[in-house]
C-alpha cells in the first residue's frame, strides 16, 4: 500500500509521454495471446503425433494454413474496420469460376480470364462496400445477401454455360503455365516442397502490417472501426475506407481463387460455402475484436496457422475426424479467452 | 440354487426390453467383429474421402473397411473433407505419415490428380473407390472399386419402365455434385417417360419435404419420385402422402429405414451400390497387393453395383442394414 506516496507524482506527468518498456509493448500486441496458443498447439501435436515434426508434414500444415491465411488477412483488416464479410468464402469460388469460364468460352489467354476475374471481383467488393455505406444496414445483412447471390450465381452460371456443375479444363490453354507458376507452383527448398501460396500469404501479411502500422490508411482503418462518428468528425474518409477494405477482401479472394483454378485447372461450382467462417475464426483467434478497432494482420496469420495445425494435426495424430469441429471450437474458445486475459493484463500494467 | 439364481436373473431382467436397444446393437457388433486371420506385418492403410460430416453412407463404407482391416491385421486410418483442395491436403498428410496403402475417392478428380502422383512417387499403392472410375487408371491407381453412376441411373430408368411409369422426378440433394448429375443423366438415358430434375437443400430436411410436396402438388401427372440418397426416401414418401399424390417413391442406396419401407410397400425399389463392399474390398485388395501382388479385374474397375432391391430382398437385408453393414 505505497500508492499514496507515488500517486501525486503520476498525476503531474502526461501519460501519453510515459515510457513503456519493450516487454510491456509486447504484452500490448493483439496477437500475443494467439502466439502463446500457437506454441501450445504446436507442442501438443509434436508430442502426440510422431510424423508432425517432419519437414514434409510441416510444409503440408503451412500450405493448409496459407489457403486460409491469404483470406484471413483482409478479413482481419475488415474486422478492425468494424465490419464483416460473409461472402468471402464463396467469392473465392466465384473468382476461380469467372477466370476459368471466361478463358474457356472466349478461347482467350488464361491471363485475360484472370484479368476479367480480377475486375469482376473488385466490382463485387465495391458493391459490398458501396451498398453498406449507402444503406447503413449492418454488414451482416449486406454480405449475407451477397453470399447467397454468389452461391446461386456460381451454380447457375456454371450449369448454364458448361452444362455440368464443374468447369471445363483450361490446362491446355495459352498462359496457363505462367499463371500456374505465379499462383500454384512449388518451390523446393532444402529438399522440402513448399507451395507458392505460402509466399503469397507471408507477402500479404507483411503488406497489411505495413499499411496498418505505418500509413495513414492504417490509422483510418483503426479509427473507422473504433468509432466511425468520431473518425468522420476528424476528417477520416469513412466510406472510402470501408469500400477499400471490401475491395481488399475481393482482391485476396481473387488470389485464392486463381490458386484453386491453377492448381486443379477445373473448378467445382458448389465449393467455398462455410469457408468465410474459417477466415473470421482465424482473425478472431489472432486477436481481432468482434467489435472492431483492435487487431492485427500478423494475428490473423497466427490464427490461420493454429487452424492449419489443428486440421492437419488431427490427421497426423490419427484421430477420428468426427471430433475435428469440437477441437476447432474448443481452440477458438481458449484462444479468445487467452486473448482477453492477456489484453486485460496488458492494460492493467500500462 | 439354480432356481433361485434364475428367479433373480429373471426379476432383474424384467425391466429390460427384449428387443432393440443398445444390447441388440452390441450383440450385432460382436457378431460382426473379426480377429486378424493373417500374420503379415501390421501395415497402415488410409482412406480419404469427399464425405461431409456425419454421412451414414460413409459410415457403412468405413465399417466394411474396418472389418477387412481387422481380418488382415491392418491399422486403418480415415479422413474426409467435402472440398477438393482440403481432401487433397488430407491425402498429403497421409503420405507424410508414410502409410502403406491409400484409398481415395475421386468425386473431384482434378483436385486429386497431383497428390495421387505424389503417392505413387512415394511408392504408396493407391486404390480409388466410389466415384471416379473414368479417371482412376489415368491417375495411376491400381484399380477402382465402386458403382458407375450412369449405369446405376440406367438401371433405375429400366426399372421405372418395367413398372410402367410415365413421368418421374429426380431429386438432387446436393447441388454441384457431379455424381448426382450423372445418376439423373443415367435415368434419363434409359427411362422412356419424361424425367425432370428437382434440386433440394439436402442439409435441411423440412425443406426437402416441402420442395417435393410443392413439386407433386404442381404436377399431378408425376407418378414416380427418385431420390438419390437413402435418407431422403422416407421424406419423399411423407411428401407424397402430404400432397395426396399417388407417385411411387424409389431411391438410390439403402439403409435400415429404406429396407423397412420396402418391406411395407411404401417404397417401390432401391438401387444399392453396396458401400460396405467398397470399403471392404478396397482394404482387402490393398492387402492382397502388398502380400501377393494380386489385383482383381486386371486393374479394370470392379463394380459393386447396381443391385436392384425390392420387397422380396428387403426382408433378408433388413437385419444387415440395422447393424450398419448394408
Characterization of the model:
Chain A: Keywords: Cell inner membrane, Cell membrane, Membrane, Sugar transport, Transmembrane, Transmembrane helix, Transport. Chain A: GO terms for molecular function: transmembrane transporter activity. The complex is a heterodimer of chains A (350) and B (326). Chain A has 350 residues and is an all-alpha fold. Chain A has one domain: ABC transporter involved in vitamin B12 uptake, BtuC (Orthogonal Bundle). In chain A, 73% of the residues lie in helices and 2% in strands. Chain A has helices spanning 3-12, 22-27, 32-48, 55-80, 88-106, 110-135, 139-162, 176-184, 196-214, 216-226, 228-233, 238-264, 275-285, 297-316, 324-348; strands at 186-189, 192-195. In chain A, helix 6 packs antiparallel against helix 12 (238-264). Chain B is α/β, with parallel strands linked by helices and 326 residues long. Chain B has helices at residues 2-13, 21-32, 56-71, 84-96, 109-121, 133-136, 149-162, 178-190, 205-218, 232-243, 256-263, 275-292, 311-322; strands at residues 43-49, 74-80, 101-105, 126-130, 144-146, 167-172, 194-199, 224-227, 248-252, 267-272, 302-303, 307-309. A six-stranded parallel sheet of chain B has the order 2-1-3-4-5-11, with helices on both faces. In chain B, strands 7-6-8-9-10-12 form a six-stranded mixed sheet, sandwiched between helices. Chain B is globular and about 60 Å long. Chain B starts with a helix and ends with a helix. The relative contact order of chain B is 0.14. The chains are: A mainly alpha (350), B alpha/beta (326). The interface between A and B is medium-sized, with 33 and 31 residues.
Amino acid at each position: 500500500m505505497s500508492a499514496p506516496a507515488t500517486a501525486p507524482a503520476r498525476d503531474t506527468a502526461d501519460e501519453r509521454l510515459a515510457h513503456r518498456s519493450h516487454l510491456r509493448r509486447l504484452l500490448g500486441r493483439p496477437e500475443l495471446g494467439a502466439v502463446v496458443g500457437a506454441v501450445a498447439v504446436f507442442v501438443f501435436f509434436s508430442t502426440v503425433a510422431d510424423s508432425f515434426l517432419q519437414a514434409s508434414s510441416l510444409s503440408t500444415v503451412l500450405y493448409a494454413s496459407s489457403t486460409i491465411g491469404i483470406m484471413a488477412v483482409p478479413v482481419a483488416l475488415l474486422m478492425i474496420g468494424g465490419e464483416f464479410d460473409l461472402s468471402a468464402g464463396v467469392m473465392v469460388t466465384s473468382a476461380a469460376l469467372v477466370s476459368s469460364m471466361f478463358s474457356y468460352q472466349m478461347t482467350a489467354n488464361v491471363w485475360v480470364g484472370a484479368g476479367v476475374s480480377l475486375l469482376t471481383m473488385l466490382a463485387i467488393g465495391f458493391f459490398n462496400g458501396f451498398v453498406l455505406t449507402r444503406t447503413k444496414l449492418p454488414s451482416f445483412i449486406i454480405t449475407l445477401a451477397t453470399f447467397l447471390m454468389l452461391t446461386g450465381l456460381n451454380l447457375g452460371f456454371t450449369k448454364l454455360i458448361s452444362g455440368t456443375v464443374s468447369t471445363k479444363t483450361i490446362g491446355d490453354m495459352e498462359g496457363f503455365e505462367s499463371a500456374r507458376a505465379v499462383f500454384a507452383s512449388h518451390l523446393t527448398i532444402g529438399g522440402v516442397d513448399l507451395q507458392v501460396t505460402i509466399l503469397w500469404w507471408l507477402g500479404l501479411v507483411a503488406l497489411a502490417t505495413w499499411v496498418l502500422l505505418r500509413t495513414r490508411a492504417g490509422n483510418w482503418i483503426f479509427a473507422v472501426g473504433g468509432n466511425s462518428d468520431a473518425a468522420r468528425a476528424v476528417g477520416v474518409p469513412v466510406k472510402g475506407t470501408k469500400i477499400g477494405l471490401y475491395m481488399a477482401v475481393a482482391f485476396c479472394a481473387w488470389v485464392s481463387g486463381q490458386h484453386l483454378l491453377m492448381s486443379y485447372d477445373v473448378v467445382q461450382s458448389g465449393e467455398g460455402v462455410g469457408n468465410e467462417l474459417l477466415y473470421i475464426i482465424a482473425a478472431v483467434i489472432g486477436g481481432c475484436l468482434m467489435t472492431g478497432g483492435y487487431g492485427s494482420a500478423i494475428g490473423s496469420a497466427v490464427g490461420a496457422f493454429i487452424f492449419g495445425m489443428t486440421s492437419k494435426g488431427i490427421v497426423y495424430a490419427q484421430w477420428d475426424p468426427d471430433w475435428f469441429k469440437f477441437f476447432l471450437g474448443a481452440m477458438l474458445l481458449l484462444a479468445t479467452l487467452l486473448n482477453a486475459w492477456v489484453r486485460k493484463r496488458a492494460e492493467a500494467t500500462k | 440354487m439354480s432356481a433361485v439364481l434364475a428367479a433373480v436373473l429373471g426379476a432383474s431382467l424384467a425391466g429390460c426390453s427384449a428387443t432393440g436397444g443398445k444390447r441388440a446393437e452390441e450383440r450385432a457388433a460382436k457378431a460382426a467383429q473379426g480377429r486378424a486371420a493373417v500374420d503379415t506385418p501390421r501395415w497402415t492403410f488410409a482412406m480419404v474421402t469427399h464425405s461431409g460430416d456425419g454421412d451414414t453412407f460413409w459410415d457403412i463404407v468405413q465399417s466394411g473397411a474396418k472389418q477387412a482391416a481387422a481380418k488382415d491385421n491392418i491399422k486403418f486410418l480415415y479422413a474426409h473433407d467435402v472440398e477438393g483442395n482440403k481432401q487433397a491436403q488430407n491425402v498429403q498428410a497421409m503420405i507424410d505419415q508414410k502409410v502403406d496403402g491409400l484409398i481415395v475417392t475421386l468425386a473431384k478428380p482434378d483436385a486429386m490428380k497431383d497428390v495421387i502422383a505424389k503417392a505413387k512417387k512415394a511408392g504408396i499403392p493407391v486404390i480409388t473407390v466410389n466415384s471416379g472410375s473414368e479417371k482412376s487408371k489415368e491417375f495411376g491407381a491400381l484399380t477402382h472399386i465402386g458403382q458407375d453412376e450412369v449405369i446405376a441411373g440406367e438401371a433405375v430408368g429400366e426399372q421405372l419402365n418395367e413398372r410402367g411409369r410415365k413421368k418421374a422426378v429426380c431429386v438432387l440433394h446436393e447441388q454441384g455434385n457431379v455424381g448426382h448429375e450423372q445418376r439423373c443423366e443415367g435415368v434419363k438415358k434409359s427411362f422412356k417417360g419424361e424425367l425432370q430434375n428437382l434440386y433440394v437443400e439436402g442439409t435441411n430436411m423440412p425443406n426437402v419435404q416441402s420442395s417435393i410436396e410443392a413439386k407433386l402438388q404442381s404436377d399431378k401427372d408425376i407418378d414416380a419420385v427418385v431420390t438419390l440418397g437413402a435418407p431422403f426416401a422416407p421424406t419423399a414418401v411423407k411428401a407424397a402422402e402430404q400432397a395426396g399424390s399417388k407417385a411411387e417413391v424409389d431411391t438410390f442406396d439403402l439403409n435400415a429405414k429404406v429396407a423397412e419401407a420396402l418391406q411395407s410397400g411404401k417404397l417401390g425399389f432401391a438401387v444399392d451400390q453396396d458401400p460396405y463392399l467398397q470399403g471392404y474390398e478396397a482394404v482387402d485388395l490393398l492387402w492382397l497387393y502388398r502380400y501377393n501382388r494380386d489385383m482383381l479385374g486386371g486393374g479394370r474397375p470392379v463394380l459393386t453395383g447396381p443391385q436392384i432391391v425390392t420387397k422380396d430382398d428387403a426382408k433378408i437385408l433388413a437385419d444387415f442394414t440395422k447393424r450398419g453393414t448394408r
